[in-house]
Amino acid sequence: MPDQRPRYRTYTSAAGGWGAAAATAKVLLEQSVVGKGSRALLAMNQPGGFKCPSCAFPDATCTKKLEFCENGAKALAHEATKFRVTREFFAAHSVSALMEQSDYWLEMQGRLTEPMRYDPATDYYVPVSWDDAFALIGRHLRALDSPHQAEFYTSGRTANETAFLYSIFVREFGTNNFPDCSNMCHEPTSRGLPPSIGIGKGTVILDDFEHAEAIFLMGHNAGTNAPRMMTPLVEARKRGVPIVAVNPMPERALVRFTEPQDIVQMATFASTEVTSEFVHIRIGGDLALIKGMMKVMFERDAAGEAVFDHDFIAEHTDGFAALKADIAGQEWPAIVEASGLDEAQIRRCADIYIRSRATIICYGMGVTQHQQGSQLVQQIANLLLLRGNFGKPGAGISPIRGHSNVQGDRTVGIDEKPSQAYLDKVREVLGFEPPRENGHHTVESVEAMLNGTAKVFIGLGGNFVRAVPDTDRAYDAMRQLDLTVGIATKLNRGHLVHGKDALILPVVARSERIETAAGEQFVTIEDSMSNVTASRGVLEPASPHLLTETEIVCRMAVATLPSSKVDWASYIDDYSLIRDKIAAVYPAIYEDFSERIKAPTGFHLDIPPRRRAWATSNGKANFLILPGLAVNAPVADPTMLRLATVRSHDQFNTTIYSYNDRYRGVYNDRMVLFMNADDIADRQLAAGAKVALETITDDGIVRRVEGLTIIDYPMSRGSVAGYYPELNPLLPLAFYDKTSGCPAAKAIPVRVVAVGAVA
What we know:
With 759 residues, the chain is of the alpha/beta class. The protein is built from 31 helices and 33 strands.
């Protein structure tokens, strides 16, 4: 039996390479799907195949035989697994007993096989027919005093067709309550960028990486969270393109990477040094870095150097003078202190940016998950605008999204703050008057549960209760509900923290074929760079009792809205009819949807900034000001550290594939705290010590996580990191960006408390 004791050792090899190949083989073997899993991988991200159910990074235009990464293989293996969660499984395990199991154990039990209903008299889930399940949902929803007493969650894995119908069902029901996984990650992009550049998404396409003269990576870990992104980064470095990585912790893939599809590198055990400049930023220091770079630019412009694109600024922007005044008010000592960087390095970063005629800035949740995350995103846009880095090859802003269709869901209507123009179009096309008031984002939905105004929760995918902040309070909130519905492929914690009535509804997975009375159907996915492609599953469904997400949404609507103006039944069998409705509601971007999607590699949605067109209130791109240098409220406590919750390498969002995180040197453990050596010494602790973390708040609620092992890791001073969802209990519900509602999970103020001797 293998040794399962925790082990910690520094990982010194290149990321990717044979390690990634071995991990792929291991997970296929572990899930007993070596044969069918390998065949399915050959169809992943290929024309005529299915889109990876993991990250949202786009496919290369030059199709490769293997267009998947290690973590995509893990997602597919866990989806294609031979293991099953049957009625016999539920008969053998009460909900209370299942709650004692780990998230990893729940994941490893396999695929759900038939609809189940919670029986409060026995504390077991029991089989229920699909008809009875839909009838139960309809009764609960129709019994509400107000449609606003229901919360409708959406996972980013939901396809465009399903997400569109879900948005129509919920709006016809009468609410805009759409707590969404985007609320917890890139909502600052969706809310911050529209007043800046006129659209709440990135402006870069994959081809731009071939033309960029500099690439900045801020607050994300591509090697784990979007491994296919490493290919264009490696190719850029081979061309001599400077890559600047800004992060409070160095990530192995951005240090050295071996491209698994590079035969020469694999054969010679060679690798590419990816990052040319590593910027060891303090958590929350990104704003100071950006303003420091802009300060250098204004200094050099004042000295007569051609730094700014003045023609672009004059023709396309507004607010330049206000930005200049703001930057003039920032002093170097404060910039250095807030960023945690040397002035010399900030000047080097500025020089790289100034010398580049085409720059891409990519960012992730290390940027968005702050109390001023929306405004921080706007500062990145400001930096790009100064040199006209929009509307030309190799330039633009590129948020690196997580879930494979999280951007698409927003595009087709999953939005708690819909525009009035969109609602007018829904009325015109679908024939009913949609609600006009804003609905709840994720934090507001939990607050509504806690105060008793929410009664029903329906989760279209995901693991809501483990993803949201303030775990203990979230559990209490969910248990107050009258009905919870989990629509899912696998068992997760969200099915065990439930309302008085509860349903688990199993669905056909992304990799599985969809057969209806009208024949084989496909769905569509929008990647993080606005390319829309078809996705056709190739595997047999895990059980004959599964339904598609689309059919589940349609049948919920039929059960809830007996007088509906929408022909829900027609959409169950023919997905082209759904695409026609999407095109009718969004004619500017989805015109001729059904025809355009026939192209093998799909099509790009229009991104106006790529044409230097700005859909803002004044028709210009706007320099927007965030005063000062802080993106989070100051904390007076001198013991305070800023905690960033992060994924391990063997994890996708709340899904845990193993207890290992090999690039960070952690094996058989997830209860760890990555900490700077000087911060450890300052607290008279040592690597290996067991500690607790406590949140520093003034709301009177004690938030504490015990049993964390200190890992001596090259974090920036004042910054610590640990895994979510284990550390989500430390994130206060009220600690979020008020513009977007996004929780500030990368800046939690904590103190370290010793609870035992050094191991």
